[in-house]
Design brief:
Layout: H1 6-19, H2 24-39, H3 45-55, H4 62-75, H5 78-90, H6 96-109, H7 115-120, H8 122-131, H9 138-149, H10 159-168, H11 172-178, H12 180-200, H13 214-225, H14 227-236, H15 242-260, H16 266-299, H17 302-312, H18 317-332, H19 337-354, H20 359-372, H21 381-390, H22 394-417, H23 420-428
Helix pairs in contact: 1-2, 2-16, 3-16, 4-15, 4-16, 5-6, 5-13, 6-8, 6-9, 6-12, 8-9, 9-21, 9-22, 10-19, 10-20, 11-23, 12-22, 14-15, 16-19, 17-19, 18-19, 18-20, 19-20, 20-22
């Protein structure tokens, strides 16, 4: 590569600006503008890519709606009722609160689609519950909360899968279905590890909930428990598109919290909308920057060139998937997940297609891999969130999260080498891939 070429200089500009604190989305826009200027191309292409990518793509609208739904759940009493429900069924075992942490993440995964929303909302509650009266070490509770939050973007709905669908043209509905078994697999490994830790570290046993109280607890939590059914039922029955289902989810969360539970004030609602807008703006700017930079990558013919190089290596589909996993695991240590999906995966997708790899399987594998970056040092965004919530040193959380990270890597290996773990459920619903 010519180090003085417009593309090389744009990469340098993006890297320098990002390292100096400019948000990655802004850095990609600036680097792309520099490329267009040096290459003598039309500068209006930047605005054109914004308009074509952001405003003509209906699917992107699902992202802010799912974010809003998660915020509305966290400000209402839906979270508290679901915690009581989970505790009633698994809290009675040794290490019960730790098992509750995993179970509540499975349920919340079917509502929010965001790991950060899970950690910042229900995760904060779990941290307080687990550390009350010194029941669990604060670092272990924080590590477990971070690890279980990873399940959120894998079990549908999933914001990362929506973004992957944007760059791959894969079906969102089938991607959502494909994430169910991998998400449950990861949760199963986590619950097994918690059971082992509970014995070896002598975690406490919570007082069992009387059986006579279970029906009442279930009834009080039922409106919240029905939310995933409303959301996914609308999609797979054909009544709503995924974007419309996201709007229904947000409206449902608002109605349940305000009308039925009566636990949300106008100030709470205003703050949740404001928080959702901030998160959406951050993600939107990242998507905008990636769209412009992807145009630069396309002009430079990078995906096709990389595809030719990889094919010259005569990689088998399995060999390619192993290589992709290694690349993504390394990138996940230093890059934010959305950036990887928007910038790196479009370069790899043509090779995956040329090797006959199913794009739904490939997408779920990549999303699972990238989500591991949320708990992988040194970047590990969920780790930093839990440092803020738990007020414990990062090194202590990293020490306790590593066993969970190893189990998630084991899940990734199964997902990679056994595609049917991903594709079985979509095929049950008519997927022909």
């Amino acid at each position: 590569m010519n180090l003085a070429s417009p593309f090389s200089l744009s990469i340098v500009a993006i890297t320098v600006l990002a390292l100096n604190g400019l948000p990655v989305g802004h850095a990609m826009i600036a680097g792309s503008v520099l490329y267009l200027l040096l290459a003598g191309l039309d500068m209006g292409t930047v605005a054109e890519q914004f308009l074509n990518g952001m405003y003509s793509n209906y699917i992107i609208l699902a992202v802010p709606l799912f974010i809003l739904a998660a915020e509305l759940m966290n400000i209402g009493s839906m979270t508290d009722r679901l915690m009581v429900f989970c505790n009633a069924f698994v809290g009675r075992f040794r290490g019960g609160l730790a098992q509750v942490n995993v179970l509540q993440s499975i349920i919340f995964a079917g509502m929010s689609g965001s790991a950060i929303a899970d950690a910042a909302g229900s995760g904060k509650i779990m941290q307080n519950m687990m550390t009350a009266d010194g029941k669990y070490p604060a670092s272990y509770a924080a590590a477990l909360t971070a690890a279980t939050a990873v399940i959120g973007p894998i079990i549908p709905p999933s914001i990362p899968m929506i973004i992957y669908a944007l760059v791959s043209d894969a079906s969102i509905g089938y991607l959502f279905l494909a994430g169910v078994v991998p998400g449950l697999l990861m949760a199963g490994f986590q619950m097994l590890l918690v059971a082992i830790h509970s014995r070896t570290r002598n975690f406490p046993v919570e007082p069992p909930t009387p059986v006579r109280e279970l029906p009442g607890i279930t009834v009080r939590a039922l409106p919240a428990l029905l939310m995933p059914l409303v959301l996914l039922g609308g999609i797979y029955s054909g009544v709503t598109t995924p974007t419309e289902a996201a709007a229904v989810a947000a409206a449902y969360a608002l109605i349940i919290s305000v009308v039925l539970y009566r636990s949300v004030s106008f100030g709470d609602f205003y703050n949740s909308v404001l928080a959702s807008a901030r998160t959406t703006a951050s993600i939107g700017m990242l998507i905008a920057g990636a769209l412009v930079f992807n145009y630069v990558v396309t002009v430079e013919n990078i995906p096709q060139s990389l595809s030719v190089v990889l094919q010259s290596w005569d990689l088998s589909p399995t060999g390619f998937l192993i290589l992709v996993n290694i690349i993504l695991l390394l990138l996940g240590c230093v890059l934010e997940g959305t950036t990887i999906i928007l910038v790196i995966l479009p370069v790899l997708i043509p090779t995956a297609q040329a090797l006959g790899i199913d794009l739904v399987h490939f997408g779920v594998m990549c999303v699972v891999n990238i989500m591991l970056g949320l708990v992988t040092p040194p970047y590990g965004l969920l780790l930093f969130i839990m440092v803020h919530i738990a007020k414990v040193p990062l090194r202590d959380i990293v020490r306790d999260v590593l066993p969970f990270l190893y189990t998630m890597i084991a899940s990734l290996i199964i997902i990679t080498f056994f595609p049917e773990t991903v594709l079985w459920l979509p095929r049950l619903f008519g997927y022909q891939g």
